[in-house]
Amino acid sequence: MSDLQTYLQAMNSTAPSQLALEDIVDETIQEIERKTRYAPFLADGSDETAIAYTPNGTSILDLKKGMASVASVSVGVSATSSGTVLTADQDYWTMPNIGVRSNDDVVKPITYIQFADEQYGAVNSIEVVGDWGWAAIPITVYNIGLKRAAAEVVRIKTGQSLGAEKIKEGPVMLEFPDGKTTLSEFMSEFDRRLRGYTRASIQ
């Protein structure tokens, strides 16, 4: 939030109310999650969230999300049974493998489970427990998210072009060549940069 306020001040644009600013930040996060298909995008450090999946008769389970870490995987889960807890690196493997990194040197999230055997069973009989989202936000996503939020504030308030040439706050650099970056160019850059972080479905 403070980074966004700094950008707005450097662009000679006063921030709206704190509540309105929070709404814009929340909207930007939701847009990042929608475009990248990681929801949540950033993990909260908790291992308490369980999501149920239906076996598809194959050995691959597309999580339809990303995970920073997997606490447990169980099969045969039902209303009356907690099922069987599988053994990691024996009964299943997490993919992409831990240690694979994005261009920002941030570990990519786990996006699917590779089982040792094909999985069959009832609806929602596979349960995956873990920390959902990226372990850390890539600096490219953080940067473009701040820029998108700043552009949205300016668009709502004035519809003006952004006049600053370069703004630096901490590790984040915001550049506007010749001070002529327009709001539409801003949004196009937002879409383009996020393509490299979009979750691919394997099923």
Outline:
The protein is of the alpha+beta class and 203 residues long. It has helices at 2-10, 18-36, 139-157, 183-194, and strands at 49-53, 60-75, 84-85, 92-95, 110-115, 126-132, 166-169, 172-175. The chain is elongated, with a radius of gyration of 21 Å.
Describe the protein.
The structure is a single chain. This protein has 203 residues and is an alpha+beta fold. The chain has two domains: 2-38 and 138-197, no CATH class; 49-132, no CATH class. Residues 167-173 have low confidence and may be disordered. The protein has four helices and eight strands, in the order H-H-E-E-E-E-E-E-H-E-E-H. Strands 1, 2, 3, 4, 5 and 6 form a six-stranded antiparallel beta sheet that branches. A two-stranded antiparallel ribbon has the order 7-8. It starts with a helix and ends in a 9-residue tail after the last helix.
The amount of helix comes to 25-40%
Residue windows where pLDDT falls under 50 for at least 5 positions: 167-173
Mean pLDDT figure: 81
What spatial form do the alpha-carbon principal axes imply? elongated
Structural class: alpha+beta
| Secondary structure tally, helices | 4
Amino- and carboxy-terminal Cα gap: 38 Å
Number of E-type strands: 8
Beta-strand portion reads 15-25%
Using the CA coordinates, give the radius of gyration: 21 Å
N-to-C series of helices and strands: HHEEEEEEHEEH
Assembly state here?
single chain
Largest sheet: 6 strands, antiparallel
- Counting structural domains, the number is 2
